[in-house]
Design goal:
The protein is mostly helical. The chain has helices spanning 3-11, 52-55, 65-78, 91-100, 106-119, 123-127, 131-138, 144-162, 170-174, 181-191, 201-210, 218-228, 234-247, 265-279. It is 51% helix and 0% strand. The structure holds iron/sulfur cluster (SF4).
């Protein structure tokens, strides 16, 4: 089932205002939680230093940071050791592999990169290649013309502006040809020791279904997840959601095998819809009056 359909299911039956808060129908005071009556400082959580207000659901109705962290704990337990599946030995190789992975599979990229890394071990070697010479070597990953252009352009920019090294900085990385925010976050988080939370289609689908994010814009989802998770967990969060999206929460999800089924907005909306169908009284069948002769 598509993400759009999932969102429609989640939002079905809510008005615009009702859809924004769990406290719908309550007055402001009725909607207060058990922390009611405490001062702002008293409700700071132990580890995060967050206030209760910061820990509340946002107006977009995503789960609270505490709920999100708890759900990620469960998903990490279901997918222990989640990591990028792109083979690499350094930041340069991971940057090349990630550019090649667009519209391709990690498995396919891993078949192409060993020979590529032997021939072009660093930015200097790749910057001296021609686009035409590179194309047949990466042909099987798809979009080989655009990718060849990006790879050579990226290597030349590294030589020109960064002494051949991959910069550990989001702005510098996204200024390189063929490098978007997702690719930059992959390299920062996995090869440069800088927290990064790449949002690909799996992260987008899974996080929206569960209700730990609420947007079809990857930048907004990245912001929502980063706000909920501590920086040291950003990269693992992305890897875990990607693995969950590949193995369990596929476009047609395997909800019976999912560790977070009980808290998943998408699953719960399906359960509610199914209950409504079961309890709805059967309509009386209209019978036509027999025609008079
Ligand atoms: S219950 Fe799990 S598999 Fe099913 S939609 Fe939710 S996150 Fe995906």
């Amino acid at each position: 089932m598509s993400l759009a359909l999932g969102q429609r299911l989640v939002n079905r039956g809510r008005t615009k205002d009702q859809g924004q808060t769990k406290d719908q129908g309550r007055t402001k005071d009725q909607g207060r939680t058990k922390d009611q009556g405490r001062t702002k400082d008293q409700v700071r959580t132990k580890d995060q230093g967050r206030t209760k207000d910061q820990d509340r659901r946002t107006k977009d109705d995503v789960k609270t940071p505490t709920e999100t962290r708890h759900l990620l704990d469960k998903l990490e337990a279901q997918h222990p050791g989640a990591d990028t599946e792109l083979h690499h030995r350094n930041a340069f190789e991971l940057l090349v592999a990630t550019i090649l992975s667009a519209q391709s599979t990690d498995r396919r990229v891993n078949m192409v990169t060993p020979a590529l890394f032997d021939r072009y071990p660093d930015a200097r070697a790749l910057s001296a290649a021609t686009i035409a010479e590179l194309e047949p070597q990466i042909h099987s990953t798809g979009f080989f013309r655009a990718k060849s252009k990006s790879l050579v352009g990226m290597a030349r920019a590294l030589m020109e502006h960064h002494g051949g090294r991959v910069p550990a900085d989001m702005d510098a990385l996204t200024a390189l040809p063929g490098v978007g925010r997702k690719t930059a976050n992959v390299v920062l988080g996995h090869a440069l020791g800088v927290p990064g939370l790449p949002v690909d289609r799996h992260v987008l689908r899974v996080s929206n279904r569960i209700g730990i994010a609420d947007s079809d814009d990857p930048v907004v989802v990245e912001r929502q997840l980063c706000a909920a998770m501590p920086g040291k967990r950003w990269t693992r969060t992305s890897d875990t959601l990607i693995l969950h999206g590949r193995r369990i929460c596929r476009p047609t999800p395997l909800c019976d095998e999912c560790a977070v089924q009980e808290a998943c907005d998408y699953f719960q909306s399906l359960v509610r819809a199914s209950k409504r169908r079961r309890t709805r009284p059967a309509r009386a069948t209209k019978t036509k009056a027999p025609r008079r002769p």
